[in-house]
Amino acid sequence: MPFGSIDGVGLGCRALVSDGQPSVFPTDAWLGRVINALGEPVDGKGPLPKGPRGVPVRNNPPSAHARARVGEKLDLGIRAINAFLTCCRGQRMGIFAGSGVGKSSVMSMLARFSAAEVAVIGLIGERGRELQEFITEDLGEEGLARSIVVCATSDEAPLMRRQAAYMTMAVAEHFRDQGRDVLCMMDSVTRFAMAQREIGLSAGEPPTTKGYPPTVFAELPRLLERAGPGVAGSGSITGLFTVLVEGDDHNEPIADAVRGILDGHIVLERQIGERGRYPAINILRSVSRTMPGCNAPIENELVNHARRLMSSYDNMAEMIRLGAYRKGTDPQVDEAIHYQPALEAFLKQGKREATNLDESYAMLAAIFGIEQWPPQE
């Protein structure tokens, strides 16, 4: 299959066969640049310098027994995630949402506010007009300065869209092997799967669930397993991958497959966004698999208490809205109703507002009347 248009190609054209697997040669000079799926600059800032060491575009993840464990907590700048869905260095998380629920906004906040040294952002199969919008408004100069953006728009050939995902991981692996902590974000894994579906069906594969051929479900772990901790002594790739759930069905095939591969999932819900709370994270449906092991006991106690109150309110929400719940029937529900406005305000955060890990716990503790965090023994 072609990587681009085949206009003008015909009998008698010269064909060149390349040897071996294609590689990419990143350097620190690539930071702040925008490249395509083939590693070529598309930002009009001139050619890219070539680094001394190549990284295969289609690489294998580190050996399972040689990999380090996930590291310490990583500050992502969004207090709902920092407090309730704490992410560690080398962890892989999915951001699951329907169209227009705020995935790109969450990604831009993560790119600007996270404490990672380098951010590699893959925009796979996105709208062409959104690239400049994302770079200038969402990412900004500060975010772009420590980022590399890999872009393949929705009108490009499926091979280019698939290649952009591999290129994103290859660039992230280069900085990981230098000993750096890399934040690798990809929007979206679903469009990578759709590109692989086009390729598989064109090659004559049988369609299975929702028309996805078997290679889609084989390629997903090969791609996503490349993120994570490196071998001992190297850095890590913290992966945040968005998944576009079709028709807001969080159990559709790609979402289900990706959820089983990753180390946690962040669910964005349209109903939460419709009532004006952004980021529209449903805390009760989201999970980080490194929690509670990465937290101190006192932090887990605080978070679990807040979760219990949110769960109690959610269970009785319909009756509370209808006025059918009578105060005093259940003390825990009474407490949940009392704290609900403050917890809702805590989860709401502006796109230009950053909250670090310590501030996140301190703000959550203040809701329950704990003025000093951590409390003195």
Automatic annotation (TrEMBL):
UniProt-listed Gene3D superfamilies: 3.40.50.12240
CDD domains from the UniProt entry: ATP-synt_flagellum-secretory_path_III_C, ATPase_flagellum-secretory_path_III
Keywords: ATP synthesis, ATP-binding, Bacterial flagellum biogenesis, Bacterial flagellum protein export, Cytoplasm, Hydrogen ion transport, Ion transport, Nucleotide-binding, Protein transport, Translocase, Transport
Domain AAA+ ATPase: 89-273
One Pfam short name: T3SS_ATPase_C
Region Disordered: start-end pairs: 42-66
Entry-linked SUPFAM superfamilies: P-loop containing nucleoside triphosphate hydrolases
SMART domains, sorted: AAA
Top-level lineage group: Bacteria
Principal place of residence: cytoplasm
Enzyme category, top tier: translocase
Keyword Translocase found: yes
UniProt EC number: 7.1.2.2
Subcellular location: Cytoplasm
Stored PROSITE patterns: ATPASE_ALPHA_BETA
Function: Probable catalytic subunit of a protein translocase for flagellum-specific export, or a proton translocase involved in local circuits at the flagellum.
Family classification: Belongs to the ATPase alpha/beta chains family.
Name this protein carries in UniProt: Flagellum-specific ATP synthase
